[in-house]
Every structure is written in C-alpha cells, then in structure tokens.
Write a structure and sequence with these properties.
single chain, 259 residues, alpha+beta, Thrombin, subunit H, Beta-Lactamase, 2 domains, 6-stranded antiparallel beta barrel
Length: 259
C-alpha cells in the first residue's frame, strides 16, 4: 500500500495532480481531488514521482472515495513506458564496446550479448530510462545493416497506431513525413513488414525498424534482430515497472522512518 506518493497525470495535454494509493507492475490505484477529468477507456500518461520514465496507461475504472467524499479514485492499467527519442552523444564508450564485440563475434552473436548486457543493467536498476540505449542500438544497427531509424508503434483501441520515434537520425524517404508515418503504421500491423522501393519496414513487438538501404543478403538477419529487440522491449518494460514500484516503496519507507 502506498500513501502520499504525489505525482501527476497527463490527460490530453492537461496535467492533474494525483497520489498513488497502490502500485504494481500491472497498474495503479490513484487518488485525485474533485471529479475525475478522465473517462473509462481513456489513455493517460503518468509521471511517477521523481522516477523517469513516464508510463502510458489506460483508465479501467473510476469511483468516488468511500472515506473521503471530495476525492475520486481512479484505477489504471499500465500499457508501456512512454519511450522518448534521444539525440544524445553520451555513451560513446558503450557504443565502442559494442562495436568491439563484432570483431570477435558474428553480428547476431554480438547483438545477443548486447541485449544480455542491457538485461542485467535494467534488472539491477542501473538504468532509469532507455533513451540512450535505443539511440545507441540504432547507431550500432546502422553500422551493420545500413542506415536505420527505430520507431515505437502502439495500437490504439480505435484501430489507429500511435507512433513514437525512438532513434530517428535519417530523414524520411522523399522528405514526406506523413507518408513515412503511414508506411510505418501499416508495417506494424504485418508479420513480415513491407518493402517500399528501397526502404524496408520491419515490425517487432511494439516497434518498427525502418531500413533505408537494407542489403538483400541481410534481410533475414534484420527481421530476426528486430523481433528480438521488440521482445526485449516488452521484458525491459516489465523490469522497469518493477524497479519503479520498488523505488516508490523505498521512498515511502524512508519517509515513514523520518516521521
């Protein structure tokens, strides 16, 4: 049980103050003053105290507080981390270490080792967000598959697809961003992806790898790496949710000791 853990919830661009009453890897129970500005089924973004990243969630129920009539209780189910792109040049030493792996192993084996390293770092709570990791992963892939962009793709209840750039370092083909997003959204709904001219759009679990000049000989490898990265993104989300829950409990325990 969590009490007095203040945070905020963003609803269609508006910020609302909330307090956590309970938190798990799957969802949370929030308390807010006054009537709820959200509706059941609506998507919200929650900033969890001082912990980064933010969390995409879906409102599952709303009810007045039994003990405090002026308060509203809201139950949300977590959907994913709100992944954000990064243009950071930090972590160059990390990228160099990854490149060194490829001198000793095949691209596939090196990729497995990179993912395993990130598994340990995230599981141990050494990373609070994944922006630089995805940025460096895209740069590493670009060195072996040709220039690539990396996008998160989340299906919405209305059948549309919400896209978030994770590492977009190359301009869209033809300079048309709208067409680029439409192609990525279509590819996210397929099993094998799409080929548009010289550009390949390969779906993973919740992401799409946009390969701007993928050699035909590397297409099978690129699809395999994309699927593996998508599966890892789901695992990393769960691990970071667990880390956030532990951090919140630790903060509350420390606050109770001080009181």
């Amino acid at each position: 049980m969590l009490t007095h853990v203040a945070s905020e919830m963003q609803v269609e661009g508006h910020r609302v103050g909330v307090q956590f009453q309970d938190f798990s890897e799957q969802g949370a129970r929030l308390q807010m003053t006054g009537r709820s500005p959200v509706k059941v089924g609506q998507q919200v973004v929650i900033a969890v105290g001082t912990v980064s990243p933010n969390i995409r969630a879906r409102v599952r129920w709303i009810t007045p507080s039994v003990t405090e009539p002026e308060q509203t209780m809201v139950g949300v189910e977590f959907e994913s981390l709100l992944l954000e792109g990064s243009q950071s040049q930090e972590g160059e030493h990390l990228l160099e270490a990854w490149q060194e792996m490829t001198h000793s192993f095949s691209v596939f084996e090196a990729f497995l080792r990179i993912l395993s390293t990130l598994d340990l770092e995230i599981g141990d709570g050494q990373k609070e967000d994944m922006r630089d990791a995805f940025h460096n992963l895209a740069r590493w892939l670009s060195g072996h598959l040709g220039p690539v962009n990396l996008w998160a793709a989340f299906p919405e209840p209305d059948g549309t697809c919400s896209l978030q750039p994770l590492a977009v370092n190359y301009p869209p083909p033809g300079g048309d961003e709208q067409s680029q997003r439409e192609r990525i959204a279509r590819a996210s709904e397929t099993d094998m992806g799409q080929l548009e001219g010289a550009v390949a759009y390969l779906p993973g679990e919740g992401l799409v790898l946009e390969c701007l000049s993928l050699p035909e000989t590397e297409s099978d490898l690129a699809q395999k790496l994309t699927r593996m990265l998508g599966q890892r993104m789901t695992l990393w989300t769960r691990l970071m949710m667990k880390n956030i829950a532990l951090t919140l409990l630790s903060e509350q325990f420390q606050r109770l000791k001080e009181d």
